[in-house]
Design brief:
Helices cover 50% and strands 7% of the residues. It has four helices and two strands, in the order E-H-E-H-H-H. Strands 1-2 form a two-stranded parallel sheet.
Amino acid sequence: MPGVVPIVSCYEAGRDGFWLHRYLVHCGVANVVVDASSIEVNRRARRAKTDRVDVEQLLRLLIRYHHGEKRVWSVVHVPSAEEEDARRLHRELERLKKERRSVGKMPACGRWTNRSELWKLSRCDVWRRRRRRVINKWRT
């Protein structure tokens, strides 16, 4: 087979991060990370959402995208590894703050008058240990 054959791929952005995109680009694959909410869906056809149907739709849109239709979907900006790590710290901090607010609605830890609420004491202790572990990780 003479010449180089270009390889193109795409996937929906998700919680797994962008490590896969960076790896594919490093291997020479022209990869596109797509915003899942921007993919065309026929709202009248009530279809079961399956991986096979999703792959077929992504393939059709990928072909249209590489033939010049750039408005087929929204392409997600892929952050650098350092930016993604900074986001991870911020998200973990936000999760801990949310958890602290939910624990803060309970009486102060260790001041229990009712034995039925004893499980809350263990929940508060778990939260404190987790918070200490995360904060110590940030300090190093």
